[in-house]
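Morning. Coffee machine broken again, so started the prediction first thing and wrote up yesterday's gels while waiting. Chain of 133 residues, entered below exactly as on the submission form.
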Amino acid sequence: MLRKNIYTIFFVSWMLFITFLSLFSFSRNSLPSVKIPNLDKVVHFIFYFVASILGSLFVREITKGNKTLIKTCMLIFFLMVAYGIIIELLQMKFTLNRNGDILDVLANSLGAFFGVFVVKYVFSKKTQLKWKN
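Came back before lunch.
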Protein backbone atom coordinates (compact mmCIF):
# COMPACT_ATOMS: atom_id res chain seq x y z
CA MET A 1 0.00 0.00 0.00
CA LEU A 2 2.68 2.49 1.04
CA ARG A 3 4.87 1.58 -1.91
CA LYS A 4 1.96 2.03 -4.33
CA ASN A 5 1.36 5.60 -3.17
CA ILE A 6 4.91 6.79 -2.59
CA TYR A 7 4.73 9.77 -4.98
CA THR A 8 1.40 10.82 -3.50
CA ILE A 9 2.97 10.87 -0.04
CA PHE A 10 6.06 12.74 -1.27
CA PHE A 11 4.03 15.30 -3.25
CA VAL A 12 1.53 16.05 -0.47
CA SER A 13 4.36 16.27 2.09
CA TRP A 14 6.38 18.60 -0.15
CA MET A 15 3.39 20.88 -0.74
CA LEU A 16 2.68 21.04 3.01
CA PHE A 17 6.35 21.85 3.58
CA ILE A 18 6.23 24.70 1.02
CA THR A 19 2.99 26.02 2.48
CA PHE A 20 4.34 25.99 6.02
CA LEU A 21 7.60 27.73 5.11
CA SER A 22 5.77 30.27 2.95
CA LEU A 23 3.14 31.29 5.48
CA PHE A 24 4.89 30.90 8.83
CA SER A 25 6.80 33.93 10.05
CA PHE A 26 10.18 33.18 11.54
CA SER A 27 11.83 35.57 13.98
CA ARG A 28 14.98 37.18 12.62
CA ASN A 29 17.02 35.83 15.55
CA SER A 30 16.05 32.18 14.96
CA LEU A 31 17.41 32.03 11.42
CA PRO A 32 21.06 31.80 10.43
CA SER A 33 22.28 34.93 8.75
CA VAL A 34 23.49 34.29 5.20
CA LYS A 35 24.16 37.27 2.97
CA ILE A 36 23.72 35.97 -0.58
CA PRO A 37 21.84 38.31 -2.94
CA ASN A 38 18.54 36.89 -4.19
CA LEU A 39 19.01 33.58 -2.37
CA ASP A 40 15.27 33.50 -1.68
CA LYS A 41 14.58 33.44 -5.45
CA VAL A 42 16.83 30.40 -5.82
CA VAL A 43 14.95 28.72 -2.97
CA HIS A 44 11.62 29.51 -4.64
CA PHE A 45 12.90 28.07 -7.91
CA ILE A 46 14.08 24.85 -6.22
CA PHE A 47 10.85 24.43 -4.23
CA TYR A 48 8.67 24.64 -7.34
CA PHE A 49 11.10 22.67 -9.50
CA VAL A 50 10.83 19.75 -7.07
CA ALA A 51 7.08 20.28 -6.63
CA SER A 52 6.42 20.07 -10.36
CA ILE A 53 8.45 16.88 -10.71
CA LEU A 54 6.71 15.27 -7.73
CA GLY A 55 3.35 16.57 -8.95
CA SER A 56 3.88 15.00 -12.36
CA LEU A 57 4.83 11.68 -10.79
CA PHE A 58 1.82 11.98 -8.48
CA VAL A 59 -0.54 12.41 -11.45
CA ARG A 60 1.15 9.48 -13.19
CA GLU A 61 0.71 7.37 -10.08
CA ILE A 62 -2.97 8.12 -9.50
CA THR A 63 -3.93 7.83 -13.18
CA LYS A 64 -1.66 4.80 -13.75
CA GLY A 65 -0.12 6.66 -16.67
CA ASN A 66 -3.42 6.98 -18.54
CA LYS A 67 -3.21 10.79 -18.68
CA THR A 68 -0.78 11.73 -21.42
CA LEU A 69 2.62 13.13 -20.56
CA ILE A 70 1.87 16.45 -22.30
CA LYS A 71 -1.47 16.90 -20.52
CA THR A 72 0.10 16.04 -17.18
CA CYS A 73 2.96 18.49 -17.68
CA MET A 74 0.59 21.27 -18.71
CA LEU A 75 -1.76 20.55 -15.79
CA ILE A 76 1.03 20.52 -13.22
CA PHE A 77 2.67 23.64 -14.65
CA PHE A 78 -0.54 25.66 -14.47
CA LEU A 79 -1.42 24.30 -11.02
CA MET A 80 2.04 25.18 -9.68
CA VAL A 81 1.87 28.71 -11.13
CA ALA A 82 -1.62 29.19 -9.64
CA TYR A 83 -0.48 27.78 -6.31
CA GLY A 84 2.53 30.12 -6.26
CA ILE A 85 0.31 33.13 -6.97
CA ILE A 86 -2.13 32.10 -4.22
CA ILE A 87 0.69 31.68 -1.70
CA GLU A 88 2.06 35.13 -2.54
CA LEU A 89 -1.41 36.68 -2.18
CA LEU A 90 -1.87 34.92 1.17
CA GLN A 91 1.51 36.27 2.31
CA MET A 92 0.42 39.81 1.39
CA LYS A 93 -2.96 39.62 3.09
CA PHE A 94 -2.62 37.31 6.09
CA THR A 95 0.96 37.30 7.39
CA LEU A 96 2.56 39.95 9.54
CA ASN A 97 6.23 39.64 8.60
CA ARG A 98 5.95 38.31 5.04
CA ASN A 99 5.36 40.17 1.80
CA GLY A 100 4.08 38.93 -1.52
CA ASP A 101 6.54 39.53 -4.34
CA ILE A 102 6.04 39.34 -8.10
CA LEU A 103 9.65 38.17 -8.48
CA ASP A 104 8.85 35.23 -6.20
CA VAL A 105 5.97 34.35 -8.55
CA LEU A 106 8.41 34.53 -11.46
CA ALA A 107 10.94 32.29 -9.66
CA ASN A 108 8.14 29.83 -8.77
CA SER A 109 6.94 29.77 -12.38
CA LEU A 110 10.43 29.23 -13.77
CA GLY A 111 11.02 26.41 -11.31
CA ALA A 112 7.73 24.77 -12.32
CA PHE A 113 8.55 25.21 -16.03
CA PHE A 114 11.98 23.62 -15.74
CA GLY A 115 10.58 20.85 -13.52
CA VAL A 116 7.99 19.78 -16.09
CA PHE A 117 10.63 20.18 -18.81
CA VAL A 118 12.82 17.67 -16.98
CA VAL A 119 9.86 15.29 -16.58
CA LYS A 120 9.04 15.65 -20.27
CA TYR A 121 12.64 14.90 -21.23
CA VAL A 122 13.10 11.99 -18.84
CA PHE A 123 9.95 10.27 -20.08
CA SER A 124 10.49 11.15 -23.74
CA LYS A 125 11.24 8.53 -26.34
CA LYS A 126 14.93 9.38 -26.04
CA THR A 127 15.20 7.55 -22.71
CA GLN A 128 14.25 4.07 -21.59
CA LEU A 129 11.74 5.24 -19.00
CA LYS A 130 8.12 4.93 -20.07
CA TRP A 131 5.28 7.19 -18.94
CA LYS A 132 2.62 4.52 -19.05
CA ASN A 133 2.87 1.81 -16.37
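Residues 6-22+37-122 form one domain. Going to sketch it on the whiteboard this afternoon.
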